[in-house]
TrEMBL record:
SMART domains: PKS_ER. This is Enoyl reductase (ER) domain-containing protein. Residues 52-397 form the Enoyl reductase (ER) domain. The chain crosses the membrane at residues 428-449. The keyword Ribonucleoprotein does not apply. GO terms for biological process: fatty acid biosynthetic process. InterPro entries: ADH-like_C (IPR013149), ADH-like_N (IPR013154), ER (IPR020843), GroES-like_sf (IPR011032), NAD(P)-bd_dom_sf (IPR036291), PKS_NRPS_Biosynth_Enz (IPR050091). Keywords: Membrane, Phosphopantetheine, Phosphoprotein, Transmembrane, Transmembrane helix. One of its GO terms (molecular function) is fatty acid synthase activity. The keyword Transmembrane helix applies.
Length: 450
């Protein structure tokens, strides 16, 4: 306080708790260790990325930083990690998987020529390879407006359940839901009465598989790696749960479970048919070695073996020699997307319809903040957390904007209230920028978005 004659003056300015920052990226200098990931600043995208400025040459577009035809530019809001990303960073993924990051949710900030499924301002979810950065360009066929959005591409019949989808929830969905739809619906054709063995049942894919099996009336047999995960999966309505760490104990438990299930469903245990039915109909596998071999022994004649693993898996020729009666599919959604992006657009529309009708719901998420100054909650912590297989549900990395941080630091955030969380994650409020098309206005608007 300063006294000047008859006047008393008090300080009116204080240092803001909001950290001023620009666009950032999680850069991988070389594969081999999670510690090789470094958060660093990156350039803003040009402000004039639009179809009017696109040139006739895709190469020239790339050189000038302009969007090629059919692409869209996203301000990334959240990234869903997959184990593929951990293998990528560790240098253990077969082939060249490109930059880490795939599942994402974001806001469209620019579109290239020929794009009609999304428009500027849409909140979208889908795939954007290398999306661990504030801005990323992707094929517009790989994203779709969130349920409940006002985009013409989004159904107008979306339910209230879908309309409150948070950014981190949406980022958790694309790969896990597409994988389960391909594996259990399109290929295995799971139906009521089927017995389905789901390995790693507490993960994102496992939870999506459980949800689908319960919807169609199939019985789930799950494996997990800890007592805490066992309790969690049991809370999802799964009765038969065993270990994913000990192949001998797993096989013993499964034989017991199948006998119990047959007895409970009044199957004739003394008949030859009853003995044959003491097996599972479908295996959704992600485990190698002895667990894979035990799973094959538990699979009934003419069963369906859906392989999601990337290392130590059977080739089709090996499976034919070992079990010629089995329908075997090694599923790699990433390769399917690369070969046919239009197929994935159709899959995203299917996922959106399932969300809108309530047939699927997002898994629980464990969220980290890519811009966090704390080593316990940043992006590297997210990778290490997933590497140790500690998660139940989906690991997500958030990329909050300055506006999000302003809303959180104002004290108005109520994370236990879903409506307030939606407001925070989907923008945190409305900001009016006067003179928004002038030089300063554009800079302020971009600062709010980033």
């Amino acid at each position: 306080v300063a006294v000047r004659g008859e006047h008393v003056y008090a300080a009116r300015l204080a240092k803001s708790a909001i950290a001023a920052r620009g666009a950032v990226e999680l850069h991988l200098s070389e594969r081999g260790a999670i510690s090789n990931l470094k958060l660093r600043p990156c350039a803003y995208p040009p402000l004039d990325l639009d179809e009017k400025n696109s040139s006739s040459s895709r190469a020239n577009d790339a050189d000038k930083g302009k969007l090629p035809p059919g692409a869209c530019l996203l301000r990334v809001r959240a990234v869903g990690l997959n184990f593929r990303d951990v293998l990528n960073v560790m240098g253990l993924y077969p082939g060249d998987p490109g930059a880490p990051g795939g599942d994402c949710c974001g806001t469209v900030v620019s579109v290239g020529s020929g794009v009609d499924n999304v428009r500027v301002g849409d909140d979208v979810f889908g795939l954007a390879p290398g999306c661990l950065q504030s801005y990323v360009a992707t094929d517009a066929r790989l994203v779709h407006p969130l349920p409940g959005s006002s985009s013409p591409s989004s159904s107008s019949s979306s339910s209230s359940r879908a309309s409150v989808l948070l950014h981190e929830q949406a980022a958790a969905l694309p790969v896990i839901t597409a994988t389960v739809q391909v594996a259990l619906v399109d290929l295995a054709r799971v139906k009521a009465g089927d017995r389905v063995l789901v390995h790693a049942a507490s993960g994102g894919v496992g939870m999506a598989a459980i949800q689908l099996c319960h919807t169609v009336g199939a019985t789930v047999f799950g494996t997990v790696g800890s007592d805490a995960k066992k309790a969690f999966v049991r809370s999802l309505g799964v009765k038969y749960i065993t270990t994913s760490r000990d192949a001998a104990a797993f096989e013993t438990d499964m034989n017991t479970f199948l006998s119990q299930h047959n007895h409970n469903t009044n199957r004739d245990q003394d008949s030859q048919q009853g003995a044959a039915n003491n097996k599972v109909d479908v295996v959704l596998n992600s485990l190698p070695g002895a667990m894979l071999e035990a799973s094959l022994r538990l699979l009934g004649h003419g069963g369906r073996f859906m392989e999601l693993g990337k290392r130590g898996i059977y080739s089709p020729a090996q499976m034919r020699r070992c079990r010629p009666d089995v329908t075997y599919e090694a599923i790699a959604v990433d390769h399917m997307v690369e070969s046919d992006p239009a197929w994935f657009q159709t899959m995203l529309k299917r996922i959106t319809r399932l969300l809108e009708t309530g047939f699927i719901t997002p898994p629980p998420t464990h969220a980290f903040d890519m811009t966090s100054a704390s080593g316990k909650h940043d992006a590297l912590a997210a990778f290490r957390f997933m590497q140790r297989a500690q998660h139940m549900g989906k690991v997500v990395i958030r990329l909050p904007s300055i506006a999000d941080n302003n809303y959180r630091l104002s004290g108005r955030q109520q994370t236990d209230n879903n409506e307030a969380r939606q407001s925070l994650t989907r923008g945190g409020g409305t900001y009016v920028v006067t003179g928004g098309l002038g030089g300063l206005g554009l800079v302020v608007a971009r600062w709010l978005v980033v």
